[in-house]
Automatic annotation (TrEMBL), chains A, B:
One GO cellular component, as annotated: cytoplasm
Protein name per Swiss-Prot or TrEMBL: Phosphate acyltransferase
HAMAP family, per database record: PlsX
Record-stated family: Belongs to the PlsX family.
SUBUNIT field: Homodimer. Probably interacts with PlsY.
Organism for this UniProt entry: Campylobacter vicugnae
Gene label: plsX
Chemical reaction(s) catalysed: a fatty acyl-[ACP] + phosphate = an acyl phosphate + holo-[ACP]
PANTHER family noted in UniProt: FATTY ACID/PHOSPHOLIPID SYNTHESIS PROTEIN PLSX, PHOSPHATE ACYLTRANSFERASE
Catalytic activity, EC: 2.3.1.274
Enzymatic class: transferase
KW Lipid biosynthesis (keyword) present: yes
Length: 330, 330
């Protein structure tokens, strides 16, 4: 049984949604959940019939969201530190945390270590498209705000491996996010990256922001500054549209009835664009599997983050990244 | 009567939608429209009762979308060149073009000239928010892909002036687009820009992508690379949501009925987020008024672009920009 280390207390809402997500995941498949946190508290949340799938690991501290990421290296009694340590010592195969994401990255990079040839790990996230069951992987979405062309090249290799090994796409299409599709478009850094990416058979060239959602490309490469902005912009647009519709429906009894008839449509839409469907973002380029979840994760998000960790653990993604890197003489 | 030079043939769909937009604008208010293009063609499109508001200016060539922007300087017989020339010679107060946007920028910068103290003009665009009648101005959205901190500072001054003079906001709130709200967030360039922007009373600090749409800030500053990506990402999300809803409605008769009852809601939403409601983006930082419209502009977009040109021409925005710049010792 695969063993997954779960930072059970690092999120914004404490242990409850995390443990509920673990139980929901266990209802769908078997794995061994290492829950790191206040054992008394955690034990009270586990129904008897699931206790054989749980290993409790005591940790007395929670690393707070407003602390400086690198300070986590000194916080050996914190839930996130102990969770990563379980992976470093090979007790567990993967770690899932909804805690301080900078702290998770620091621990992953410095305690687990980077893959050979990767200078900067990146956070990858799946974005919904208009094509059913088709997602677009975007990286980096926040680990590295200032990138060089070489970093973007590495992101491409990592994204390719993820698409192939985890998303099971035979010939993933890689695109470089730019301000136009033409080869000549881009800023100084993406233009340099374009020249490096041309070596990759999977590279289809520059892509534009709207292509994230149309399914025309499988992996989109950008720096973490742009990636963070596009993620929040996307959430903002989706949230604004929902809000405008809700405000406007309220004003008309006929529209209220219409919205009732369209309930299934809106529910389907919500599922299709819902962050909880992915639940977490893998940190690519480190030696083990680290899944970073949102601090405000729901049980559903945690459940899906665990499924991501399981898929990752069962794959050969890190081998594929290493093999691909040796193919290309940067 | 304010005279507006209109590149009547530069858009993707030829003269028809442009002229239709001009007529629609004339139905709402009086101005003198200088239509630049093939006069025989254009005359045939003008209803008799509007002819007294039209001045025809013959131009034999159209500068094509796939030509290199700077080549336009040699194309003195092109519609866009002649349109800008009418402003340069002070015959007209403003120019509206749905033609090659790079060519419009080159002509504006090199023939009309930059405002004193502005090293890079920027394209500004209005974005919808969830608050009725409240828009957010975003700049730059494409004129400058590589920016220095000084450029972002100038964009802030120009955006402030636009918000005050055109949007009529008494105390505009300026935000710097970043990967987090905290002061410490940003890439190398935005961090430097942050330090410069602190001098401005109107500066509220870093803002995130979702704040474009919530009405919490009036002007958002970014470089043209990020601005272009966020614009296309926003269009992409809105388009994807519309498509998912449409696809899903089709599958259920009840939902079709519901959508019928919600027709007013969807129409209102469309109006609120529709690009055509703004119709064009002003190029800020040049000595006169240049409104850049999308090549695929509808008559409605052209009409609203003309209204933008009229508002701009009646304002003191360029004076305000110059005054504000002298206030701050960069």
């Amino acid at each position: 049984m695969i063993k997954i280390a779960i930072d059970a207390m690092g999120g914004d809402f404490g242990a409850e949604p995390i443990v509920a997500g673990v139980i929901d995941a266990l209802k769908q498949r078997e794995f061994q959940a290492y829950l790191i946190g206040d054992n008394n508290k955690l034990k009270s949340l586990i129904p008897q019939e699931y206790s054989r799938f749980i290993t409790f690991v005591q940790a007395d501290e929670v690393f707070a969201m407003d602390e400086s990421a690198t300070d986590v290296l000194k916080r050996k009694e914190s839930t996130i530190y102990k969770a990563v340590e379980l992976v470093r010592t090979a007790e567990c195969k993967a770690v899932v945390s909804a805690g301080h994401s900078g702290a998770s990255m620091s621990l992953a990079t410095l305690r687990l270590g980077r893959l050979k040839g990767i200078s900067r790990p990146a956070i990858a996230t799946l974005m919904p498209t208009t094509q059913n069951n088709k997602k677009t992987l975007v990286l980096d979405v926040g680990a590295n705000v200032d990138c060089k062309a070489e970093n973007l090249f590495e992101f491409a290799i990592m994204g390719y491996a993820y698409a192939k090994e985890i998303m099971k796409i035979d010939n993933p299409r890689l695109g470089l996010l730019s301000n136009g599709e033409e080869d000549c478009k881009g800023n100084e850094i993406t233009k340099d990256a374009f020249d490096m990416l041309k070596k990759l058979d999977s590279f289809i060239g520059n892509v534009e922001g709207n292509q994230i959602f149309d399914g025309s490309v499988d992996v989109i490469i950008c720096d973490g500054f742009v990636g963070n902005i596009l993620l929040k912009t996307s959430e903002g647009v989706a949230g604004a549209i929902t809000k405008i519709i809700k405000q406007s429906v309220k004003k008309s009894p006929l529209a209220i009835l219409g919205a009732f008839f369209m309930k299934g449509v809106f529910k389907g839409l919500k599922n299709q664009i819902d962050y909880d469907e992915y639940g977490g973002a893998p940190l690519l380029g480190v030696k083990e599997c680290v899944i970073i979840s949102h601090g405000k994760s729901s049980p559903k998000a945690i459940k899906n983050a665990i499924f991501q960790a399981l898929k990752f653990s069962e794959s050969n993604i890190n081998e594929v990244i290493s093999n691909e890197l040796t193919k290309y003489d940067k």
